[in-house]
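Lab notebook, bench 4. The sequencing result for the construct came back, and we need a structural model before the next group meeting so we can plan mutations. Quick request posted to the team channel:

Model the 3D structure of this chain.
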Amino acid sequence: MVIYQPNGSETENEEERQFLEQNYLPQHMPRQFIAIGGGRSEIKISEIVADEDFNVFFPLLYEHPVPSLGIHDMALTTDSKTIAAVSVDGLLSIVDVKQGVRFESVGKTIRNFWSVAFDPKGKFVYAGNGTGCVYKFMVDNGHVLQEYNSQRMNTILCVCPSTNGGYVASGDFDGWFTLYDGATSFVLKQIHFKKALRSIIFAEYLSIFLAACDDHSVKIVHVQDFDTEPLMGHRSRVVSLDPSPDGRQFTSGSTDGVIKVWDARCNKCSITFTNREKFRLWDLAFAKSNNLVAYVSSGKDQDIYFC
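Done. Here's the predicted structure in token form:
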């Protein structure tokens, strides 16, 4: 699940678009959009609109059918133009936000993908599979450029390149955090956290990776000396992380529906939200406007919190 502000996106129904602009408050919240996957073989793209009382609505703009059995993981380029989608049956597809599927099966002979991430410039896509490997592909043509092998033969549940591509990090189902040299694919460090790692993000100005762990914590890994420390606060498995656009905050979500916003400079929790329906949280994301967090849960398609 991702939040973005694609340039020039319009609703397919012009009358609906005009109604939304006249009856809601675009001056209080810039036009923003949300894309979600799920059990159906399609990506849904909706607009986020709010009324004076901050009641939020998600009018559907369009759907992109994807040749798969459903969407397991998704990533979005920073320019909001391209989505990478990993399906339940292990295929990796590249999807244009406005036009639909560009490549139905990236990697061709490579299968069993579980996780996906873009580099900051959107030129490359990294995908982790069920045999402990991460593959780097060209976004423009889908060609594989590089393989990062953890040598652990375990499912890669999350992957993340550093901002400049100097490092690539992955986390697997057995709780192994693996840090690779981005250029040579050499394994620089492996750390065993004993419980599954579900999500990884990179904080550039601190030179740290943050990993969501099934032991109810967020793991901090310092790139310079490989020191680690746990960030406590959740009471259930942490399954999703996302940094704010300005890098000063990040958000974490756990399976009990609790979402926390942290100050990245001091690793202190500043805001805690609780999913009112208490459904299992699946994924979350920071908006580019920096003032809201959206989430997807098992009981309700989508919702947002204002920070």
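The CA atoms of residues 86 and 92 lie 5 Å apart.
Will bring this to the meeting.
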